[in-house]
Amino acid sequence: MKGYLTTAALVAVVAGLLVAGSVIALAQIARNLPKVKEFRIERAMPKEAVACIECHKREHPGIFGDWARSRHASANVTCYDCHKAESFDPDVSKEHYKQYERRDRPYGTKEYRVPVAGVVTPKDCSRCHPDEAKQYARSKHANTQQIIWQLDPWLKLGMNSDFERASGCYHCHGTVLKKMKDGKLDPETWPNVGVGRVNLDGSKGSCTSCHTRHRFSVMEARKPEACGQCHLGPDHPQIEIYMESKHGDIYTAHGDEYDWNTAPGTWTAGVDFRGPTCAGCHMSGAGTVLTSHDVTERLAWESQAPLTIRPEDFKPFPAKVNHEVEREKMKEVCKQCHGKTWVDDHFVKYDKVINEYNEVYFKPAKKMLDDLYAKGLLDKTKFFDEELEWEFYELWHHEGRRARMGAAMMAPDYSWWHGFYECKKRYNSFMEAARDLIKHKKKAYKYPDFPNATGNTTRPAEVFRKGK
Questions:
Q1: What is the DSSP string of 36-100?
Q2: What's the CA gap between 243 and 231, in Å, rounded?
Q3: Rounded to an integer, what distance in angstroms lies between the CA atom of residue 243 and that of residue 240?
Q4: Which ranges constitute the DSSP H helices of 245-362?
Q5: DSSP letter at 246?
Q6: Helix 387-394 vs helix 363-374: crossing angle, to nearest 10
Q7: Among candidates 292, 288, 297, 354, which has minimal Cα distance to 323?
Q8: Using 50, 70 and 90 to split pLDDT, how confident is the model at 31?
Q9: CA atoms of 330 and 146, how far apart (whole Å)
Q10: What is the pLDDT of residues 433-458, one digit of tens each?
Q11: Which of 264, 417, 431, 272 shows the shortest CA–CA distance to 337?
Q12: DSSP letter string, 163-232
């Protein structure tokens, strides 16, 4: 009897192990099986909105998944709320009407047909976010097309091709959206989420530059990587400067502990985050300073301009601000974490950097450049087709910007080694070559086969309408 019980127990144990093993194996297999994200429509939505959701859930699961996890979905804001349009709107998608002629979809009938715009613009977003859209509209971001067409010789003088612009410059600065004869968006202007995109409905900009589709995450826009998509590289390396600074070091060490999803207007230094990001200093509310989507605010200098000037004196796009008021706003932001003496002394040093760049480097070099043109030793017809034009351009556009921006954001390596150190080399090289041309009354060598200097030099009418 005892032996029988022992055998029975052994069989039971083995059976149990086999069952457990099967369960574990099935669980492991199940982890790798495709899963469908459940989404039940439990709130009141118009039937057109339901049709959008059900169709895109099947056609574009990535888009649907992003939206389903967004605050928009939680607030019952659907595809239809953002994309709806009037049939006569210039940006209405005629291609989308074909979706209502499909017989393989329950919602592919005329009953659900509504006009939609494929491109969602700040004008559309303003239905729910009027203050943010108004602030953005007056910022340098939204108006960057107006700025670059007045300031940049690459565009003004056609020194790069239209395709080089479309594949490079306009990805950040934005395109002027256009439609082809068949009503589809011109592929040379779309897709594009540049901050200064000129939209078919007349609005400027793209909210999805920072809050990408279709999650529209406030967390994403608060992280420095959002700004680093455009603010990087030899001419405006803000993301590299930030990461070198103490602020960037703190973000690297403790960023995973920040509360990135705090509601707008409540993101608080010392509570939700320890060291600020780009958004923390330039956009988020702090103390008595209100949140703003106008990145032109809080700036006392135009440190990206050839000659550093006040934002209200910046001719390509004069800001409607007072630099003294904006400096005090930025100081108030800084004082959330720093004492008054620290903050005041930082800006004293920064202002001295600005003055030294202006007086020691830029003004003498600009005077020499003008002298060469006046003497006929350089040709003004084009830019970049003579070596000294490159030298002058990179003195302010590369090294000069890095020196100024490095000082502003407390990155000493960029202020000195990547900045003023390189300024000295460039300045001496430029001046030596310039004096040699003057001494020998010799015209500068012109590149006879400058590549791809074929760009359209006509300023876009959509940007420079009458009165601008």
A1: PPP----S---HHHHHHHHHHHHH-HHHHHHHHTSHHHHTT--HHHHHB--TT-TTB-SGGGGGG
A2: 12
A3: 5
A4: 246-254, 278-282, 323-334, 340-356
A5: H
A6: 160
A7: 297
A8: low
A9: 26
A10: 999 999 999 999 999 999 999 999 99
A11: 272
A12: HHIIIIIHHHH--B--B-TTSSBPTTT-S---TT-B-TTS-B--GGGTS-TTT--HHHHHSHHHHHTTS-
pLDDT digits (tens, 9 = 90+) for 420-429: 999 999 999 9
Query: Rounded to an integer, what distance in angstroms lies between the CA atom of residue 354 and that of residue 310?
Result: 11
What pTM did the predictor assign? 0.88
**Which residues are registered as beta bridge partners of 198?**
176, 204
CA atoms of 141 and 197, how far apart (whole Å): 9
Per-residue confidence (pLDDT) for residue 32, from 0 to 100: 63
Residues 6 or more apart whose CB falls under 8 angstroms from that of 92 comprise 85, 86, 115, 116, 117
Domains of the chain, by residue range, sit at 47-118, 120-216, 342-440
> Which tokens is 414 given?
């960029």
Mean pLDDT, to the nearest integer, of 84-107?
88
Question: In terms of residues, how long is the chain?
Answer: 468
Q: Retrieve residue 37's tokens.
A: 């994200």
